[in-house]
From TrEMBL:
UniProt keyword Transmembrane helix, yes or no: no
Species of provenance: Actinoallomurus bryophytorum
Residues carrying 4-aspartylphosphate: D56
This protein's name: Two-component system OmpR family response regulator
Entries under Pfam families matching the protein: Response_reg (PF00072), Trans_reg_C (PF00486)
Phylogenetic placement of the source organism: Bacteria, Bacillati, Actinomycetota, Actinomycetes, Streptosporangiales
DNA-binding region(s) in UniProt: 131-228
Annotated TM spans: none
GO cellular component: a single term: protein-DNA complex
Example GO molecular function: phosphorelay response regulator activity
InterPro entries linked: CheY-like_superfamily (IPR011006), OmpR/PhoB-type_DNA-bd (IPR001867), Sig_transdc_resp-reg_C-effctor (IPR016032), Sig_transdc_resp-reg_receiver (IPR001789), WalR-like (IPR039420), WH-like_DNA-bd_sf (IPR036388)
Amino acid sequence: MVTSSARLLVVDDEENIRDLVATGLHYQGYEVATAADGRSALAQAEAFRPDLIVLDVSLPDIDGFRVCDRLQGLGQAPPIIFLTARRTLEDKLTGLSSGGDDYITKPFSLQELHARVRVVLRRTRTAPDAPRRLRVGDLELDVDTCTVRRACDQVTLTPTEFKLLRCLMEHAGQVLSKEQLLDLVWNYDFDGNAQVVETYVYYLRKKLDRTGPPMIHTVRGFGYALRAGS
């Protein structure tokens, strides 16, 4: 058994899957709570304060995407791993664009789920000595308040855009491939499909370039790098 202080919330309307996942995670050393529908998930998220949510999409009242959106809107969303039978690329993009950190399709193995949980927790639980404020040129990102400013102007980002920008700023000056960004930001490779990276780099550029010269540079054949100046 792995010793862990993390609190996990498992949300699934199928009792056998909910119990299987919860029991497996409990055996791994996590403190686990469960919910069978979207409204219960929202209530549990507020009362239990989980460090991560394993969330089904097809719930009987509020689907998992909307649960994720509501948690993001309340400013209290922990990392979320979608666990669902919905397998299309469009569904995966919707889940990750809404703020999800990973997307696992059914049928699944408990070993894979446990590995994904460990990876997401390791990535999202910031070390105590990690910088809480990042600055590159006139661009500043505050981890605690989830705010971004460029040249003193606030830049409004979605959760996924914020995570992508944070990753680029943490590796400022370095060239990151699309595959590296998929792994670092989304933790999912889409079977090699890098369209999601291109899309979100485009969104970020539009927002950042409003108040200054371009900062996200394409290095053809290699990937992207964030640098101050033109």
